[in-house]
Amino acid sequence: MDEPLVDCHCHLSANEFLQVNRRLTLRSAGVKALIAVTEGASEFESVIQLSKAYQGLIFPCFGIHPLQGCQQDLHSVRIQDLEPVLPLFQVFRGDLVAVGEIGLDFTPWYAPTVQELCSCWKAINIHLLWPFSHLGIRHALLHNFAGRPSVAMEGLQAGYYFSFPPAVSRNDQRDKLIKQIPLERICLETDSPALGPEKQVRNEPKNITISLEHIAKVKGISTEIVAEITTKNALCLFSRLNL
Predict the structure, then answer these.
(1) Dist. CA 204–CA 44, nearest whole Å
(2) Residues with Cβ < 8 Å from 82, sequence gap 6 or more?
(3) Which of 11, 16, 23, 187 is most buried, most CB within 10 Å of its CB?
């Protein structure tokens, strides 16, 4: 694959990648840029360090997922979860390419906080299934999108982008969505280490080609065209990327 590929959503700070030779794994698939998202403050330092170690390859995001805590204490994000970490978004503002991963739980104080964060960056990386236009978010990637076609249409009207991980190759449940959404609004992602082509097997950024090939197959076009357009889309949405 000659066209550079962009993995727009992956969790490189996950424990599953601690012993992986990332550069070898990534470059072997033609991946030239990865957007490393987080779900909580415990991952912030890790993605910053990764972006320094792999400068020009890994680009960091900070995100606060609406669900926080461990399995024994899983709870909706609370104000005490947010207050200590929000200043870090400003401290590292020059390093971040976007806000993410986030979701929107629409609590009275969480949604306004997300809106304030999003106003500082051009793009956000969201896991979202429900209508959202009333929030006024202008630039977004709806990752691993599995919502209703009507929600997809709302996203298209708002100018948002969509991405699909390699797991979509396991079945045809989302093929209708992939057909419905114009290629000019689709980006590539792996969501690694989750949502790979095989269940319960660690997903890796090199599997981005599986997403690429599946989208090309569903749309009946060449992988070269999908690679070219999705990379252009990623560069348009995430303006701080450089290949």
Answers:
(1) 20
(2) 64, 110, 113
(3) 187
Higher pLDDT, 216 or 16: 216
DSSP string of 171-221? -STTHHHHHHS-GGGEEE---TTSS-SSTTS---GGGHHHHHHHHHHHHT-
Dihedral sign, Cα of residue 185, residue 199, residue 130, residue 100:
negative
Residue with tokens 């000019």: 184
Residue 75, annotated ligand binder? no
State the pLDDT confidence band at 9, using cuts at 50, 70 and 90. Answer: very high
Query: Is 101 annotated as contributing to ligand binding?
Result: yes
User: Which residue type does 107 have?
Assistant: T
d(C-alpha 25, C-alpha 193), whole Å: 13
Residue 154 has pLDDT above 60, yes or no: yes
- The Cα 62–Cα 41 span in angstroms is 8
Structure tokens at 102: 């986030």
Element (DSSP H or E) covering residue 35: strand 31-36
How many C-beta neighbours within 10 Å does residue 107 have? 14
The whole-number pLDDT of residue 179 equals 97
Q: What CATH number is given for 5-237 in this structure?
A: 3.20.20.140
